[in-house]
């Protein structure tokens, strides 16, 4: 019995460009008591990144959920998040996510990110 022969072709394209990376600093992990307000801070070192975004990753899920995003003076929330979370910006490179009256449903890993647009 003969096995089928398979032929694979590879296309290699080289793009040369410079990548600039921002350095982020976020609050340390927290374990909190129920019904407390918790603030998670985030800062970065790139003033061209004018939008700060906050994500939630809950256990047993393969995706992150966008909580909201904002500029220095205005914040936008996704869905019902505005009822339990508050986004703030101290300036263009510093912001915070506040979880209001924590409960077990808030258990998650929270991430901040930043973008130029």
TrEMBL record:
The record's annotation in Pfam families points to: V-set
Q: Where is the signal peptide?
A: 1-21
Q: What is this protein called?
A: Ig-like domain-containing protein
Q: Does the keyword Transport apply?
A: no
The domain of life for this entry's organism is Eukaryota
Domain Ig-like spans what residues?
4-117
For this UniProt record, give its keywords in alphabetical order, as a comma-separated list: Immunity, Signal
The organism encoding this protein is Xenotaenia resolanae
